[in-house]
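Sequence design from tokenized structure. All designs in this work follow the same two-part layout: the structure record, then the generated sequence. An example of the structure record is given first.
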């Protein structure tokens, strides 16, 4: 009797092992679509026909109506040769999205391409501090570009004048005034050692009461 029970238990154990083995889940097959590309695969991937992205300002500012935004795709070594470009009028608060169609046949995989952006708002220009590579060398087809504002010509002149004012105390001042018909002109200037003129200011006034002040550094 004991021998029969032991034999029965052994048979059940064998059947149980076979059953659990047959129901064990198989290893998942990797999804080719989710597998990261190797550098070789990325290098041989088709060249996109569209470069997209957004443009923002490092220092927040509202852009006036009529401002011009230009976007270009260029070879970094020959930036005068524009491969693709777009231009539009913008206003208000950035960021500004852009979309730049590209002819893949014009792209050489062995070269480096960048997106150049220029935003012109009246006398003020906004330019990018960093290059934005795209399309080749592992770069993608979408970029986010940050622009910095440059000083206007007037601001540059004012800065130079303020620097000069700090040294005017040791300079000699010369001045004069004269009439030319209905035009009244007065001017003064500052010269340093050797009679070198460093700064001159001219004030004009017409008979109609119009006035103008011009400064030269």
């Amino acid at each position: 009797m004991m021998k029969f029970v032991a034999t029965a238990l052994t048979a059940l154990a064998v059947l149980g092992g076979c059953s659990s083995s047959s129901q064990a889940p198989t290893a998942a097959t990797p999804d080719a679509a989710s597998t990261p590309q190797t550098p070789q695969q990325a290098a041989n991937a088709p060249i996109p026909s569209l470069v997209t992205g957004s443009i923002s300002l490092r220092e927040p500012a509202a852009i006036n109506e009529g401002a011009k935004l230009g976007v270009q795709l260029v070879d970094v070594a020959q930036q005068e040769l524009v491969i693709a470009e777009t231009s539009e009028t913008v206003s208000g608060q950035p960021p500004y999205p852009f979309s730049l169609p590209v002819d893949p046949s014009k792209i050489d995989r062995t070269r480096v391409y960048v997106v150049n952006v220029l935003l012109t708002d009246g006398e003020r220009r906004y330019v990018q501090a960093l290059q934005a590579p795209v399309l080749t060398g592992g770069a993608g087809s979408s970029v986010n570009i940050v622009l910095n504002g440059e000083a206007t010509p007037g601001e540059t002149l004012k800065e130079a004048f303020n620097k000069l004012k700090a040294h005017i105390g040791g300079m000699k001042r010369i001045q004069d005034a004269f009439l030319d018909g209905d035009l009244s002109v007065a001017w003064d200037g500052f010269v340093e050692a050797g009679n070198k003129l460093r700064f001159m200011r001219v004030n004009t006034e017409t008979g109609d009461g119009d006035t103008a002040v011009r400064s030269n550094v």
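The chain has three helices and twelve strands. We note this feature because it recurs in several other targets discussed in the main text.
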